[in-house]
Specification:
single chain; alpha+beta; 3 domains; 3-stranded antiparallel sheet; 5 helices; flat
Length: 149
């Protein structure tokens, strides 16, 4: 069963399937290597290990585990904004039934505001800069710390 993991701080989110659950449980030491572990046990361990999972974006330990958005809607819990992960008010859904974002995010989008945060070095906290890689062929870009290299 697909689940969605999300960070309460930076609103990063990702869908995870069975293979991702195995990998994440191995990373946090909750699953021993077995050929075919019981799926019910894997699901239960995954639900109980949410406080140990780490955000890929900001490094926060402790993530939320939810049903994917489409499945959430089937349960009548409302629709979640794809940008900020807050519930979209039912009044907005009555007027715009196909909307995927809330009023605040729609306003930011209409005003052209860019609310993306810069990436910071995990070692020293310096703002990362974009640089090109050396070598022939396609130009590739990567983020690097000006202080740490």
């Amino acid at each position: 069963m697909l689940k969605e993991i999300s960070c309460p701080d930076c609103h990063w989110h990702r869908l995870v399937g069975t293979a991702d659950k195995f990998r994440l449980l191995n990373q946090v030491g909750m699953l021993r290597r077995e050929e075919n572990p019981d799926q019910a046990i894997v699901e239960e361990l995954f639900e109980r290990s949410s406080h140990k999972l780490t955000c890929d974006e900001c490094g926060r330990v402790g993530l939320r585990i939810d049903l994917p958005r489409d499945e959430e809607e089937d349960w009548g819990d409302g629709r979640v904004c794809q940008d900020c992960r807050k519930t979209i008010p039912p009044e907005r859904l009555e007027i715009f039934p196909d909307t995927k974002i809330c009023v605040a995010c729609q306003q930011k989008d209409d005003d052209g505001e860019d609310d993306t945060q810069p990436d910071f070095c995990r070692k020293c906290g310096e703002v990362m800069i974009s640089s090109t890689s050396r070598g022939g062929g396609l130009t590739r870009y990567r983020l690097r710390c000006p202080r740490c290299g």
